[in-house]
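We close this part of the discussion by returning to an individual protein. The sequence in question and its structure tokens are set out directly beneath this paragraph:
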Amino acid sequence: MNPAEFNRRVLSWFDAHGRKQLPWQENTAPYPVWVSEIMLQQTQVATVIPYYRRFIDRFPDVQTLASAELDEILGLWAGLGYYARARHLHQAARIVCDRYGGEMPLEITALQELPGIGRSTAGAILAFAAGQRQSILDGNVKRLLARFAAVEGWPGQPKVQALLWELAERYTPAERVADYTQAIMDLGALICMPRRPRCLACPLAEACIAHAQGREMDYPSPKPRPELPTRSTRMVLLRSAAGEVLLEHRPPVGIWGGLWCFPECPPGVEIADWCWEQLGLTVSVGMPWRVLRHGFSHFRLDISPIPATASGVRGTIMDGERFVWYNTCQLENLGIPAPVRLLLTALTTKLAND
């Protein structure tokens, strides 16, 4: 199928069936488009919508985002996952203000120099916000093109990715590029789905090689996956006599960077001894709770929650910025990862019932 016919079919389908009422389509200025594209990385549209609305309401422009505290940004991001995206947004906003006077650059190389923006994200921003002829290659589009052209191999391999980019460039039109970009995303998300592709509803089906061969599920090839390693940690669910809980502000990089978590006690160390040596607190330690398993992309984390109650005088380390006592009813605005929030909810319920 030649590019002109490919474009005609994709755009005709979009005119009849494409998504045109998404909240980030209401304002296609570079800043809100950028925020939406970062949130949509590896995250479904339905999940992103409420986060996007809250985020834009609080940070309506790049200057507001740049001047905000990272804690507040992470608090609004909590539950959306992949927290490096939020940190990159904050870093990039400051760069845009410092280097570009608060105006998002509309040149693809400049965009790709900002934290968190790769080639496909930059292309989407420029297509939607500036109408530039830029190609995209997100996960949905990779799958659609791999099936359409029967591209063998895992898309993460350089040769396979290069071929998919070549196809993406070939089929990106010069006109209605914003509509085409949304259309090709929608076709991948709504029609050319990973497990149950709706080929009978696809405008490209008659020219799709995978469909003609009855091999839709063979493309794209899955990433070779080794057995995920499992790590373990012990989280100390430390509360005061007044019912406050102790949270630790994690370093800005690494797992849950910049978020608030329960303190973690190294293996082989007595909890009471660790609390005294590290926090200056005398504690009574309860029975460990059931292990909570949390999955990351590269490993599984087994969390052993260990409740403890502090007594006596609090250590002076509590006056620093790393450890803080919080009332559980004030936690909503904090950046807290999902498994820690689950434990906080369970701890709050237990305190209420004791």
